[in-house]
Structure formats: C-alpha cells, structure tokens
Amino acid sequence: MSVPRLLASLACAALAVCASGWKAYQKNGIALHWVDRTLHYRLDAGGFKNGEMSNDAFALAATSSFATWQHAHCPASGTETGVGFVFDGWQSDAKAGLDCLDPPACTKLLPNGNHVIVVQKASEWSHGAGVIALTTVGADQDAQIGDADIELNDAAYIYTNSDLPPATIVDVSNTLTHEIGHFIGLDHSAVAGATMAPNAPPGELGKRTLATDDLDGLCAIYPPPNAPPAPGPTCASARAAPDSPVALVALVLMGLCGLAWSLLRIDQG
Amino acid sequence: MGRPNTRLLLACVTAQLLLGLAVRPVEAAIVRDVSLGEMTRSSERVLRGEVLTTRARYDAATRRIWTYVALEVHEVLAGSALVKGARMTIVTPGGEVGGYAQHVPGAPAFRAGEEVVVFCERTRAGLQAHTLAMGRFDIERGGPEPIARSVRRGLLVMPDARRAPRAATEFALPLVRLREIVRAEATR
Predict the structure, then answer these.
(1) Which of A189, A221, B95, B126 could form an SS bridge with A194, CB 3.0 to 4.6 Å?
(2) pLDDT (tens digit, 9 = 90+) per residue, B81-128?
(3) Where in chain B are the domains?
(4) Which member of B3, B28, B65 has the closest CB to residue A188?
(5) How does DSSP classify residue B58?
(6) Is the Cβ of A16 closer than 8 Å to some Cβ of chain B?
(7) Domain spans of chain A?
(8) Do B58 and A240 make contact, defined as CB atoms within 8 angstroms?
(9) How far A190 CA sits from the closest chain B CA (Å)?
(10) Is B102 on the interface with A (CB under 8 A)?
(11) Domain B27-186 is of which CATH architecture?
(12) Rounded to two decimals, what is the model's pTM?
C-alpha cells in the first residue's frame, strides 16, 4: 500500500469514528468504564417527599430505565453488550458518595460499591436549586469507574412516571435513562434526539428510548463479548478533550486524509 | 471519479477539522434554565475576581470531593460590599484526592489565574457557582471590550415552560452589559 493510500485509510478510519456524536468521559485518554459489567444499584427507601410517586412506581421507573441500556443491541453485531444491572433493593438513609479510610485527613478514599439513586430532600441537597438531577462518577488513574451515584433534587421539583407528563413536571424515566448513560461513562452527544443529547424540553419522554448514537457509544465503551474487550483511547474521548495528544493525533489524521486524497487524485489525473 | 469528488472530500475533512476544534470538554447534569435576573436575586453575592488557588478535599459531611477555589475579589456586582482585594472561597463539586477522581456533571472548573464572574449561591456545602456552570462567566479581554462568557459545558438544560427553549452551550455578553443587568436586578 502506498504511503498516501495508507494515510488516507488511517485518517478515514478516524473520520468514521468521529462521525458519530457520542462522547465518553475520559481519564488519561482512556474512556471511563466499569470493569465488571454486572452493576448493582440500590434505591433510596425514603422515596419522593410528597408521595407524587410511590416507591413501587419509582422502582418500576428505575428498573425499566436500567433495562433500556441492558437490553440494547449493538448495531454492528446485533448482540447485547453484557452490561447488566441488578436492583439490590431499598436503602434506608441512602447517601451518595465515597467512604473515607483515614479520617480526619481523608486522603484515602474508597469507592464503596454502593451505587444509589438518591432522592435528596431540601436538607440534603448540596447543588443549588436550579439543578434537577446529577450523576457523580468516580474513577481511578486507569479510568476504571469505582463508584457512581445519581441524585434527584426532590427539594425543588416534582417528578412523575406518567406517559403524559405535564410540561412543568419532570419525567423520572426520561431523566434516569439519561443519567444512567453518565453512570456507565457516557458524556453528552451532539446528536439531536439522542438520549445523551444536552437538552430536555419540558415534559419530554424521548430520552426513555435509546437512539442509534447512544447505542454506538455504549457498544464502543463496552464491546460485546466477542469484540476486543478493553476500551482504549477513542476518537470520542479525544473530542472530549481536544487539547489532549490523542485529540491532536486525530486532528492531524483528519488533515492528512484530505492531503492524501488530494495526492491520490492528482496522481490518478 | 474526478476532481469534484476530491473537492467534496476535502470540504468534508475541513468541516470535520473545524468541528473537532470547536468541541470542548463537557460533563452533564440536568438543570433548569435560570435567567440572569433569577440568578442575581438568589445569589448571596455576584463577584468578579481572579482565581488564586484551587485545592480538592474530601468532605465527610457530604461524603464527596469538593474543590475549594480561592478568589481575589476585584469587584462586587451584587451583594454586600467587600474590600477590594478581599479573598473569598467558593466550592465546586468534584476533584481528585489520593489518585481517585470524582467527575461531577456540569460543575464549573476553575484554574489559577483566570478572571471570572461568579454568581455565588449559598448551599449546604458552602458558596457555589449558581446552578453549576451556569453561574460562572469567563472574562475575555482580548477584544475591544471585555466579554463575559458562560460556557455551560455539561449542562442539560430543561427550559422554563414559559420561555422558548434555547441552547445550553454558551452565553456571552459584554462585561459592562452583564454589570448593568446584575445591578438592575439586584435593586429590583
């Protein structure tokens, strides 16, 4: 293979990866990921404050939102990724966060393996009144996720699991399906209509269902068992940090693609 | 295949390059679309200043990592007055302690030396930028007049039902205009 043709192939492979809109959180150029694909979660037994949703409805919304990701089929292989979610039950006095191993200094932190969806009351909410929901993902230097918690602001918002939510009420399944994308390491996507897109019109339900772009992201971070196992530096993660070396390589490759194709076309007259 | 296809490919590559350069890091939280007026009225102070230091620390009460940001105050746009050069500490969720990092969706990042305007909201954890990254503006002084730019990276914005939806990506205006709006809202 001639050098221009090789460069063209490499660059166009980069372009193909970059053509999708999904992005992954990354650490040191590697997409954040769970090593064990069976993920356990618990739900806040305190539930919602004014009984706008029963705990049964809350559990149904959560399990169906996790199931949406679990049973997604990768477009390329037609198979599931093997990422599974196990509902470990209700947790009293549920709290998001990490454990400290060496108080009071707390320089050694332990991801406690207790991944919770917490419904935060006014006295517990730490993020300001304008924040509706938030996912915190903790990872080590190898980009391995050790802890993830989803917090819902029950101090200032009303949630529902209705299929016809009023425009002023937050649909919890729509919210959770999006937040679970962050839970597994996905960032926002530039693709309109994707579950991981960064906008949510009032009363929206569309994020309950994954778009092809969401599936592409899921399956790139967690390839199905017959595909290469470890998530490596991806163009998507590079786009999440365009000043990183990986991003620069990708950008250079894209430029070389154009140059190589020009040379090819000129050679061929 | 002839030149037109080559030109088309080059155009695509150029577009991809521009797209790649335009994208910036993002994280994610779902927030309400809060107006400048509302942010002003519900902020304890609105400050312009320079970031002096940042330090991440675990907080046992909230069981999470917070980054403590020391600001040298140059101007109080709203709220009770401070001596020029006074120091204030604000907190922002997330950071890295002992090799373990917490990524907190939509949280504003601060670096030493940056000039910023921060809408400081009192929360259980201390003074924070209002509604995560919505309450932090970069001050850019490269042009004819200083620009205040809110880079709302990582925020999934749920628009107020009474207002038209708008993109969550960026919001910029001249610093002098931001100052006018904040002062007007603070005295309403």
Answers:
(1) A189
(2) 988 889 999 999 999 999 999 988 789 999 999 999 999 999 989 999
(3) 27-186
(4) B28
(5) E
(6) no
(7) 5-267
(8) no
(9) 9
(10) yes
(11) Beta Barrel (2.40)
(12) 0.78
Give the mean pLDDT of chain B: 83
8 A C-beta contact, residue A225 and residue A191: no
Nearest CA in chain A to B8: A258
Angle at CA A164, nearest 5°, toward A162 and A166? 95
State the amino acid at position A242 in one-letter form: P
Contact B132 A131 (CB under 8 A): yes
Inspect the interface and report whether the beta carbons of A98 and B105 lie closer than 8 Å: no
Q: Which residue in the set A132, A187, A251 is minimally distant from B20, CB to CB?
A: A251
CATH architecture type of domain A5-267: 3-Layer(aba) Sandwich (3.40)
- Put simply, whether A60 touches B (Cβ < 8 Å) is no
What was the ipTM of the complex prediction?
0.75
